[in-house]
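thought: user wants a sequence for this fold. calling inverse folding tool.
action: design(structure=
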């Protein structure tokens, strides 16, 4: 069991180290990472979602979608509570209050979970078919998180840190107000699309704001109700979200599903190769899609290789330790209890659905998302070595180092006593 639990970590570490090495060599430059992230989100991830969701779901197991959405919300509320506790009771940079809260509720729910599933499902008590199921479940978790992060304004936690700092800087320089105004900084939130990670691109935000050096000077435009509704739903119109919705529709409409895979409840005339008429689309998705988590892990390693810690506030090590314990020790315990009780006392999870229980436990056991790096960079483009970025780098490095120990322990315990 221990070897089975450690093997996926070794695989993912090797891939991430490769990404870090290529970044140091200049192969995975920031521009290359941005281009590769665009490729992952626009093509690889949608194909992965389609190839796993369509065969995995049908009208009989759609309750699992509700279980995943509910669990995702519970995990994010739990993480939000962790972030608030760390913010209120431990030393943190005064300009990073929202960032530490975001680090609590954002987890790496895509690359790590899918990477683990692809290896672990080859061993007992899982079957090879569970690979598609686990990836499909993880894709839904990922979509839930990104809806909260982008559509519901979770990114504002990070943005407000720099808004408040700009206001404080303005007050300090009030004696120089008569000087010529400096150029405004344009921050386009839709640049989040280009952050090189699976998280940062899954839900795009197409809202452009001008952040002037004088925050008191704002221009308010009247926006119609229809425009507001469009702006609220437009972030959902990106390849992964559209693919997930379309895949769930195809999976539950048997005549459509029969065009891609053989089903027992409905049949259509096969192509000359005795396969469904649109089987070539499914074959393409199955061939290309699995490269998405590999590329995501390489971009993860590249991101870590560019981290730098220049200065940290006194006592911040306490915040790092407390957050790491919350995310990687307490959160998995709560995740195990939540999953087992949900399986025992509700109809949302069948006790024999071991891969769903495993994905739910794994999702609760992940460290903070590396997308925080790119969100912070977007809102503070001129502060390459800011105290906020140094604090975030130290926080993430500590969590991912501890994860090498805690994740195999969680997996081993789950395999022995829960699944």
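)
observation: tool returned 419 residues.
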């Amino acid at each position: 069991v221990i070897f089975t639990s450690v093997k996926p970590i070794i695989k993912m570490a090797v891939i991430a180290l490769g990404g870090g090495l290529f970044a140091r060599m200049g192969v995975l430059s920031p521009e290359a990472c941005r281009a590769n992230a665009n490729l992952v989100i626009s093509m690889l991830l949608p194909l992965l979602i389609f190839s796993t969701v369509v065969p995995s779901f049908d009208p009989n197991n759609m309750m699992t979608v509700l279980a995943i959405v509910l669990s995702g919300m519970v995990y994010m509320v739990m993480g939000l509570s962790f972030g608030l506790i760390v913010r209120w009771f431990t030393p943190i940079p005064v300009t990073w209050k929202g960032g530490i809260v975001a680090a609590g509720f954002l987890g790496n729910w895509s690359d790590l979970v899918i990477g683990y599933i692809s290896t672990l499902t080859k061993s007992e008590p899982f079957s090879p078919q569970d690979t598609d199921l686990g990836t499909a479940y993880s894709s839904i978790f990922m979509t839930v998180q990104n809806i909260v992060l982008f559509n519901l304004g979770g990114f504002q936690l990070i943005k407000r840190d720099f808004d408040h700092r700009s206001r404080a800087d303005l007050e300090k320089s009030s004696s120089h107000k008569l000087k010529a105004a400096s150029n405004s900084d344009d921050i386009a939130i839709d640049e989040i699309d280009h952050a090189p990670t699976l998280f940062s691109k899954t839900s795009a935000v197409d809202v452009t704001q001008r952040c002037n050096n004088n925050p008191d000077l704002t221009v308010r435009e009247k926006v119609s109700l229809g425009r507001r509704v469009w702006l609220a739903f437009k972030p959902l119109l990106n390849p992964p979200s559209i693919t997930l919705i379309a895949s769930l529709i195809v999976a539950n409409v048997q005549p459509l599903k029969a065009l891609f895979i053989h089903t027992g409840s409905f049949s259509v005339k096969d192509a000359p190769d005795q396969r469904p008429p649109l089987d070539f689309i499914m074959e393409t998705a199955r061939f290309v899609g699995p490269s998405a988590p590999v590329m995501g892990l390489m971009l993860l390693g590249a991101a870590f290789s560019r981290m730098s810690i220049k200065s940290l506030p006194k006592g911040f090590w306490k915040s790092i330790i407390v957050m790491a314990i919350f995310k990687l020790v307490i959160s998995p315990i709560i995740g195990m209890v939540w999953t087992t009780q949900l399986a025992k006392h509700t109809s949302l999870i069948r006790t024999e659905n071991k891969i769903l229980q495993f994905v739910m436990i794994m999702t609760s056991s992940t460290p903070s998302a590396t997308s925080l790096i790119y969100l912070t960079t977007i809102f503070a483009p001129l502060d390459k070595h800011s105290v906020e970025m140094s604090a975030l780098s130290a926080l993430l490095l500590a969590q991912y180092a501890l994860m090498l120990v805690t994740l195999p322990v969680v997996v081993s315990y789950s395999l022995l006593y829960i699944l």
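thought: summarizing for user.
answer: Here is the designed sequence. Confidence is low (pLDDT under 50) at residues 173-220.
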